[in-house]
Amino acid sequence: MTRATLIFMYIGGVVFGLGLAFSGAARPEVVLSFLHLEDLGLLFVIGTALLVTLVTFQIVPHWLKKPPFGNHFAGNENLPITQRSVVGAVIFGVGWGISGLCPATSLTAVGMGNVPVVLGVIGMFLGALIYGQIRSRSEKRS
Amino acid sequence: MLEIVFPLGVSHYLIGGILVGLGISLPYLLTGIVPGVSTTFTSTWSYILRGSFFQTPGFVASRQWRLALVVGLMTGGLLYIWLFADGKAVSTSIEGWRLFIGGILIGIGTRMSGGCASGHGICGNAALERVSLVATLTFLATAIAVAKITSLVFGL
Question: How far apart, in Å, are the Cα atoms of A93 and each of A71, A89, A128, B58, B113?
């Protein structure tokens, strides 16, 4: 882990978070109005973010042999579509639909002084703890 | 017609989305690493828990920059309040139990599935990862249904 990686991740996070706040996506009310199909603007947030990221991920590795501060560009790993990945997406969807929260947007919301959202972030750490404990136990058994 | 589906206009959505894309692209361009967020909820536990899953080498190796990214995301929110909201904090009227229960399910679900709305929805799809497309459509459809059910059952 180099100091440069930490600095670039921090700066990237600041821009990422500023975008989430500016778009309104960091407000759970805005996310819920999208999920209720009352205001479809969130599609533009995901759409433009995806477009910019798609161009970067697909073009940059052709321009540069390796990143200036890293060893290689991560790319498509052709991960298998497993039962676990689909069931996990359903569980995430239930949580998203109940709360209007998502990992990145919650962290930005906390930065915006949205204190109640801290409860959601604590929940996310607890959820990952529960899942990690279950996986650690099953790995021990096998 | 456009006012019906986009009652608040679209410009802030577009600008915000471009910033999100740039925030993901910058660390990738410079370090080659895809800045996923939800893995932080697992990798941070590796500092104190010895369970084999938490100690997966990938989590231990990335836990430091993942926290830097998280602090950045929070700083971005703070910067927005300072620049565009006269320093006034934002709050929410959504009930605490919904935020907490929703949070737990998000923690379990994203770790099981391997990504969240930005990890699968933006990064995974931008890498043309098939599982990300399947996951994105699955959590989107589920969330739309659950939001509807929640408001019908609880009258929220």
Answer: 35, 6, 15, 26, 11
Tokens (6 digits) for A43? 């599609």
pTM: 0.96
- Taking only the tens place, the pLDDT of each residue in A10-33 is 999 999 999 999 999 999 999 999
Which residues 47-86 of chain B have a CB within 8 Å of chain A? Answer: 49, 51-54, 61, 64-66, 68-81, 84-85
At A139, list the tokens. 């790995």
What would the pLDDT profile of B85-121 be if each residue is shown by its tens digit? 999 999 999 999 999 999 999 999 999 999 999 999 9
Name every chain A residue with its beta carbon within 8 A of the beta carbon of B79: 14, 17-18, 21
Q: What ipTM goes with this model?
A: 0.96
Q: Which residues of A are less than 8 Å from B145 in CB distance?
A: 97
B 84-113 → A contacts, CB under 8 A: 84-85, 89-94, 96, 98-113
CA-based torsion, A118, A103, B65, B53: positive or negative: positive
For chain A, count helices (H), then strands (E): 6, 0
Task: Read off the tokens for B116.
Answer: 């969240």
Measured CA to CA, the distance from residue B38 to residue B108 in angstroms comes to: 10
Other beta carbons within 10 angstroms of residue B8's beta carbon come to 13
Instruction: Tell me how far apart the terminal alpha carbons of chain B are, to the nearest angstrom.
Output: 27
**Gyration radius of chain B over CA positions:** 18
| DSSP line for A52-108 | HHHHHHHHHHHH-SS-TTSS-----------HHHHHHHHHHHHHHHHH---HHHHHH
Total residues found in chain A within this entry: 142
